Amino acid sequence: MHRRIIVPGALGAASLVLAIPASAAAPSPGAPGIGDPYYPAYGNGGYDVSHYDLRLKYQPATDRLEGTATILARTTADLSRFNLDFLLDVGEVRVNGAKASFAASGEQELEITPAKPLAKGAALTVVVRYSGVPSSKEAFGFTSWHRTPDGGVAANEPEAAAWWFPANDHPRDKATYDVSVQVPDGTQAISNGTLQSTSSRLGWTRWNWRSDKPQATYLATLAVGRFDLTTGTTESGIPVVNAYSKDLGADDGAARASVERTGEVADWLTGYFGPYPYNALGGYVPNTDTGYALETQTRPFYSPRQFAGGSNVSVVVHELAHQWYGDLVSVRGWKDIWINEGFARYAQWLWSEHEGEGTAQELADYTYASHPADDPFWTVRPGDPGPENQFDAAVYDRGALAVQALRNEIGDEDFFTVLKGWPARYAHGNASVADFQRYAEEVSGKPLAALFDTWLFQPSKPATPAARTASRAPASDTPAQPRSWRRITATNDVHEH
Ligand SMILES: [Zn+2]
Fold it and tell me: How far is the centre of ligand 1, averaged over its atoms, from the C-alpha of 171 (Å)?
């Protein structure tokens, strides 16, 4: 504890001078955003969270969520007040034990004014008591809470947290979590990490989940509904917990035939990305009418629609690849989305090669050839696509092309060293596209600015011979469609509002 002691006025002016040097900055409000130009209101300034303890109760019949969030943080500035991002109705806020005043502002801001200003570098405990109906809340014109016939689900990118817990909602502020949720007996509450325990009392069952490694707020998930759980252990010893809605209907078999391969896929990915970084694994398929999947940490979310055309291990590969590329190493700002999606898509290409359904090179050739120069596809810049194109298919497909271009430029040995070394280099932290370029240059000893500029930043189709670094085929050839193509393309329906 390094909390600065504020000396009461009764001790006299001399003591006050000692406690608060004249040079100290006057406490001021923390910024309402963390400073991401794509999403100026996301996250907040003035503090850094280390842990969220969420003790909740949810009633599926009414979609009412209530509970207490205890947030452990440290101030990074002298603060007169600070913000959390949150949408539900707040009943009480305490800061370091004392009642604080609070007010809602903007689209999703909860402004908290502690009884006394907070000194920079001090430990901070914030307790927020709240309740509300998440499906009734909108921010920026949409809701990230998916109501299901048997409950609700929080899973979206870049934001979902504000619908179920108050947070510093930006990947740059990661924290550990304890998520404890009480639901009616016969209903399950699914979240990230390990299931520590369950207990039942008076018709309610409490589910206690723990994420003991840093986790970005958008990677925290909650799903309540009637689920069938399966458990197992990977060959490398990681416990697996999967959950399937009991109402998946005709998609049930294909969903299980895909997600039950989670352990196998995660073990396979370690060969490319290094050791699996967490102590839990799994996936869950709620009965939502959404179309996308999301790499929620340790336990990805899959829409049933991902399995409507039959089993789809490729989407499992994509979401599990994110456990290294996106979750372990997260974007520094949302413009760095290529670090996540270019590599998760490339992992699908590697899986295709593993399955004998087309090599990464064949997929690169086909991707390049299937978009003519005047296709708007090439106007999307994966290295800085803008918030409106953050999840455009080009970020994925052109993004993976860029990865193949890098591979062909530096050769397999250095490429696979980069692929495995990157997650270790920035483990549990954040990094940018520029950081990735620097790292690849460091490993390969080659200048790569031109290659990165061509494939990630130019709003046009790279011409041959630049294209040769990604596509070895002559531009006039029309390569055959790899067998994995349609399945991989189907996973493009990944994020939506
Ligand atoms: Zn993805």
Answer: 15
